[in-house]
Design goal:
globular
Length: 244
C-alpha cells in the first residue's frame, strides 16, 4: 500500500479527531538546489578517500547559530542504484561526545544529520544522525503541524542497514579530545527508506532534504545547507536534491 493511502486511511481518521492534519503539507520552492551525481557502489571508510568522491563538488554548510569558535563544515552527496552516499567534514577543536550506543540522543552532543523528504504529498521524512564516535540514529519522522516523533526501523540488518564510519584529525577519537577536524561518511540504502521510497530515484527525480551539523564548543552552534526558520524539523524549508 502506498504511504499516502495509509495516511489518508487509518492515519487521517485518527489525526482528524486530534485536529492535527495540516491544510497544506508542501511549501513553495526552496532556495537551494543540489545536483546529486550517480556513482558505482563503493565501501565507506570514514575518511572520504575513495576515488568516486571526485565525481562531485563540496557544498559548504552555513553557520546558522554560532556560540563558540567559527568553524567550517562541508559535505558531498552521491547516489547509486542501491542508495545514497554522504561525506561530511567538520572543523572542530574538541570532541564533545560521550554517548556510546546507537539510537541514543546523539543531537545533544557533536553530530551531523541528514534529512530526506522523498514524497511531498505526505509530511513524513527520514532522519539520520552520526556522532564522531561512529554511533548512529536512524528514524522515520511523521511531522504534523510541528508535532513530530521518530520511529525506529524494523529488521534493521543486512543490506538494509546503513554503512557508516568516522575519522578524526589532529587528535584521538575519544571523548573530550582536542582535535582539528572530524569526518563522517555513510551510505543509506534505499531499502531502509521503505515505504517512502518505492523504487530508486532516476535522472531528473527531485527530493527535498537538508544537511545539518551541531557542535558544542563554547555553547551550541549549528550549521545548515538550507536555512531553517525554526528547528531542524522545519521540513517546508528544506532544499531540493536533483538526481542527475
Amino acid at each position: 500500500m502506498k504511504l499516502r493511502n495509509l495516511v489518508a486511511g487509518l492515519g487521517a481518521t485518527l489525526l482528524s479527531v486530534a485536529g492535527l492534519i495540516p491544510s497544506a503539507w508542501a511549501s513553495s520552492g526552496p532556495d537551494s538546489l543540489l545536483t546529486v551525481r550517480k556513482t558505482p557502489d563503493f565501501e565507506v571508510n570514514g575518511q572520504g578517500t575513495h576515488a568516486n568522491w571526485a565525481r562531485t563538488e563540496w557544498v559548504n554548510l552555513t553557520a546558522q547559530r554560532v556560540a563558540g569558535p567559527k568553524l567550517g563544515t562541508r559535505a558531498k552527496v552521491l547516489y547509486s542504484g542501491k542508495g545514497m552516499y554522504f561525506l561530511m567534514e567538520c572543523e572542530d577543536r574538541k570532541l564533545t561526545a560521550t554517548l556510546t550506543e546507537d539510537f541514543a540522543d546523539l543531537y545533544k552532543e557533536d553530530v551531523v544529520e541528514v534529512f530526506l523528504w522523498t514524497d511531498q504529498s505526505v509530511p513524513v521524512y527520514l532522519e539520520y544522525e552520526l556522532s564522531p564516535l561512529n554511533y548512529e540514529l536512524l528514524i522515520m519522522v511523521p511531522n504534523l503541524n510541528g508535532k513530530f516523533f521518530g520511529w525506529r526501523p524494523w529488521h534493521y540488518e543486512g543490506e538494509y542497514r546503513v554503512r557508516h564510519a568516522t575519522s578524526v584529525k589532529g587528535g584521538d577519537k575519544k571523548s573530550g579530545a582536542s582535535i582539528s577536524s572530524w569526518t563522517a561518511e555513510f551510505f543509506i540504502p534505499f531499502g531502509v527508506m521503505r515505504p517512502i521510497v518505492q523504487a530508486p530515484p532516476t535522472s531528473g527525480i527531485r527530493w527535498r532534504g537538508n544537511l545539518y551539523r551541531i557542535d558544542y564548543d563554547g555553547g551550541t552552534s549549528t550549521w545548515t545547507w538550507q536555512r531553517t526558520r525554526t528547528n531542524f524539523h522545519d521540513y517546508q524549508s528544506f532544499g531540493t536534491l536533483v538526481f542527475e
